[in-house]
């Protein structure tokens, strides 16, 4: 099977990107797939959620600078699951390199030598359409957009789709939108239900059938640097991410 590189993206903050990467990667690794996660957010939340001390680690930025080989920054997190960390160092690097020659292809080039070691590579993006996100979009085959059911989310998606089209026209013409997943969904809220219907009308089958409910176990799992499936496999959070993983496998 050819490696699939999947960027999880939304330029808005707190939309469940990191949580989605953490849980999908955990579930697929347990299913026996070889998985790599790449933290492209200088907040380093995914790195922390993998139970790593981000400040002390070499990161993808050291590879971009040519100071480390990609193999030197890959950390094994569990059986079948590797991780490439990030930390605050990337925010400076991103500012400096934004729009310099080849700036958006650094990640794509960096992962080329190790790509075939994995079935799936998930890239966690920061909440901004800048250096890191453009690098993720250049490197990716597919994107998953996560969003909360809120009124201004649709406008945000329109901006994001503009960037996707820009990348398609420029360099990565096959970049595919695998799907849009609603996260942190509060079922009791009438507005949120209406929003989900609106999203379906707007984007049709692109919207995943699985909805990730707002579930305290998910937040607890993040806090404890675990997947929600590991923390409580009977929780709604675990059920939802297991269902999403199934849908993702069908769409690949
Ligand atoms: N389904 C959920 N139910 C309850 N809490 C959740 C859920 N998903 C995520 N959270 C919590 O919401 C917060 C934001 O989630 P997360 O970090 O995954 O979003 P993000 O899009 O990666 O944010 P950022 O844009 O800052 O990187 C976290 O505190 C997380 O624990
Ligand atoms: Mg995040």
What does this structure look like?
- This protein is of the alpha/beta class.
- It has a single domain (4-251), classed as P-loop containing nucleotide triphosphate hydrolases (Rossmann fold), CATH 3.40.50.
- Helix content is 43%, strand content 15%.
- The chain is built from eleven helices and seven strands.
- The chain has helices at residues 17-30, 45-49, 60-64, 89-97, 106-111, 131-139, 153-170, 190-203, 216-223, 228-231, 236-251, and strands at 4-9, 35-39, 75-78, 81-84, 120-124, 142-148, 176-183.
- It has a seven-stranded mixed sheet, with helices on both faces.
- Strand 3 (75-78) and strand 4 form a beta hairpin.
- Helix 1 packs across helix 11.
- The longest helix is centred in the middle third of the chain and has 18 residues, at 153-170.
- It is globular and about 50 Å long.
- It starts with a strand and ends with a helix.
- Adenosine-5'-triphosphate (ATP) binds at residues 13-19, 41, 43, 45, 127, 183-184, 212, 214-215, 218-219, 222, 237.
Give the secondary structure arrangement, pairings included.
Elements: E1 4-9, H1 17-30, E2 35-39, H2 45-49, H3 60-64, E3 75-78, E4 81-84, H4 89-97, H5 106-111, E5 120-124, H6 131-139, E6 142-148, H7 153-170, E7 176-183, H8 190-203, H9 216-223, H10 228-231, H11 236-251
Parallel strand pairs: 1-5, 1-6, 2-4, 2-5, 6-7
Antiparallel strand pairs: 3-4
Helix pairs in contact: 1-11
Adenosine-5'-triphosphate binds near residues 127, 215, 222 and 237.
Task: Considering the chains and any ligands shown, give keywords for the structure.
alpha/beta, Rossmann fold, 11 helices, 43% helix, globular, binds adenosine-5'-triphosphate, binds magnesium ion
